[in-house]
Write a structure and sequence with these properties.
0% strand; 3 helices; mainly alpha; 37 residues
Length: 37
């Protein structure tokens, strides 16, 4: 993942935070579904 971030910093950093937050939210939801605490 670090290599991908280094390869495309211009695409990742200026990207809107909304979609990124949505992705992180979906990831956390999946994690909580697969690994209930």
């Amino acid at each position: 993942m670090s290599s991908f971030a280094k390869a495309r910093p211009i695409v990742l950093f200026p990207a809107p935070i909304g979609p990124i937050r949505k992705i992180f939210r979906t990831l956390t939801m999946l994690i909580f579904n697969y690994i209930p605490l």
